[in-house]
Amino acid sequence: MRIGIIAEGHSDRAVIVNIISGITGMDESDFQPLLPQYKYDATDLAAGRGEIHGGWNSVKDECKNRIFIDDFFLQEQSDFIAIHFDTAESADYGIVQPEKGPNYCKEIRSSIINKINEWIGEDLSSTFLYAISVEEMDAWILTLLEDRDSSKTANAKKRIEFKKGYRQGKMKPDYQLYFEFSKEFNTNDEKRLTKYLSRNKSLHDFYYDVKIKVAG
Questions:
Q1: Between 192 and 49, the higher pLDDT residue
Q2: What is the C-alpha separation between 41 and 130, in angstroms, rounded?
Q3: Which of 96, 107, 125, 160 is the most buried (most CB within 10 A)?
């Protein structure tokens, strides 16, 4: 089995890999990054010369155009695609913002999933794993660092910087850094996982989306 990943950034993909690996026992090599993609080879990347196809707008465009999605599903043993959106910018792509009450996380997640299906043009919910992070993926990492509802943190990235001992603005998220930060998700310790999942509803919902579809 292979799982493709469409994410807003490489650091987001790293967190998704660790979560799914913890559920399924899959190896990092069993995941195929679809978006974002690197434009340059390893030498160019070491020199800091960027990437292409990042951010929510590129994820939206891929849902509409289905260039990588359709190609991935033509490959053998390619069963699922994890698709990621942060909710922080969701108003920019047409999501009506629900009131921030007890059902906020559930309602905005549902609205974004419906929007994805609208862009795709059909319901692929049986093969999509919806990594909808409220308000941002950094809030999922915070569940590993402190005992509170991380979806209510005003600036989760800044909070991670503080908890990890970085000077403000000096932490540069990339795949390897966030892979290390989120390694604790790759565990079969149910007691610890239950604790982390209780600290963020959107993380909880993604976890069980994967568990039911892939491992169930």
A1: 192
A2: 30
A3: 160
Calpha distance 209→113 (Å, rounded): 12
Q: How many helices (DSSP H) and strands (DSSP E) are in the chain? A: 10, 4
Rounded CA gap, 103 and 113, in Å?
A: 16
Full-prediction pTM beyond 0.90? Answer: yes
Q: Report the distance separating Cα 60 and Cα 107, nearest Å.
A: 19
Q: Helices 104-120 and 201-210 meet at what angle, rounded to 10?
A: 50
Strands in 78-86's sheet, in edge-to-edge order, are 31-35, 2-6, 78-86, 128-133
Domain assignment of residue 91, given as a range: 2-215
- The identity of residue 55, as a single letter, is G
d(CA 60, CA 129): 15
- Quickly count: other Cβ atoms within 10 Å of residue 117's Cβ: 15
Retrieve residue 146's tokens.
């402190």
Reported as a single tens digit per residue, the pLDDT across 122-151 is 889 999 999 999 999 999 999 999 999 999
| Beta-sheet pairing, 31-35 with 78-86 | unpaired
Domain count of the chain? 1
